[in-house]
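Task 17 of the worksheet. Students: predict the tertiary structure of the chain below and write it out as structure tokens. Keep your answer in the requested format; marks are given for formatting as well as content.
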Amino acid sequence: MAVFADLNLKKGSDTKALKGLLEEAAHLGFSIVAINHVVDFKEKKQEIDRPIVPSELFSSLPIVQGKSKPIKILSRLTLIVSDPSHCNVLRATSSRVKLYDIVAVFPKTEKLFHVACTSLDVDLVCISVTEKLPFYFRRPPINVAIERGIGFEISYSSAIKDSTMRRYTISNALSLMQICKGKVCLYSEKPLEIRGPYDVANLGLLFGLSESDAKAAVSTNCRATLLHGETRKTAFGIIYTTKKPRTTEEDDSVPACKKAKCEN
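Model answer:
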């Protein structure tokens, strides 16, 4: 059974509402979610706060429906950039940025979209499909982003609530899907518009995704984004390390060389 993920549960000022949203995601069958802290540099007093620790919200995590396992809660930072200077926080070694599991960027111009795809150290590039875009999607920067392991993200909310926005959403999504080879993640903009993973996969068919790519948009593509976020913190994405769990049967008194011989 696939592991489904929603990497864009927006952080708000209401902690109780956020807890309810996480519980709803677990009930719908999402095994992995990311609490998204959005920073818009156009607004005043926008700072990068520390990510929320799950233990601050729950004493025991909600159980995922059909899995009998607790939901995994990660942290995400999304920067809305409309000027090249806004990207400096990503180029600098910001300790706050490194605290987040996923780093995404929302470019507002074609130039910044090109920079995000080709040079910024991020995991996701967000794209607004609810309005007429000020630029066309070009194949070269998108291909570079795919080669770098960067995914794209679009919202499916507008496709279920308004006929005018639905036309823009489907049209823009189809233009993107023709180039990005299905390397996209889908999310809901508002808590009340969140849908189950299989419903989201069905909506992906409207965006020109194949059945397998639509399912990947809420599963394997999200997992690839999480892995990219982990490798981004280790040797600039070249090396990924994992600890081998120790068993109680292992005897620390036996030298490593003898253990290797016994295993062989």
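Marker's comment: The first helix runs from residue 15 to 28. Strands lie at 5-10, 32-40, 72-81, 102-107, 124-126, 151-155, 184-187.
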